[in-house]
Amino acid sequence: MKIKVLNHSRHPLPEYATELAAGLDLRANLDEPVTLAPLERALIPTGLFLEIPGGFEGQVRPRSGLAAKHGITVLNAPGTIDADYRGEVKVILVNLSNKAFTVEDGERVAQLVIARHEQIEWQEAESLEDSARGSGGFGHTGTH
Question: Which one of 24, 43, 102, 115 is most buried, counting C-beta atoms within 10 A?
Fold first, then answer.
């Protein structure tokens, strides 16, 4: 799949780290470092502008290394980049640790996954078909 991109950052375009990787690492494009205090969040620019084809979305997801080592994650994970959005891709990072964390220019802060999606058409109904699960949710299926 080809996606048009404007790279207004100081960094190379994101690349897949391995042959079968699903996500491309997004890098911070910062004029100066951004320090996140515990429980603080910040909008981190990437300098990238995308033209995603209709029927697809960009999903902005956390990087497992930042989450495991530093408690840094994407606040609205996964964040959605709609096909008709033409603004700069930015990442909402949050620090869930008890220590300050500094984001440096060029640091890999999130992953971008391109995924197919469908749009629905509502079909109003008077009732829904029964299922084995029924209305059980939020832990209803057990703790195992």
Answer: 24
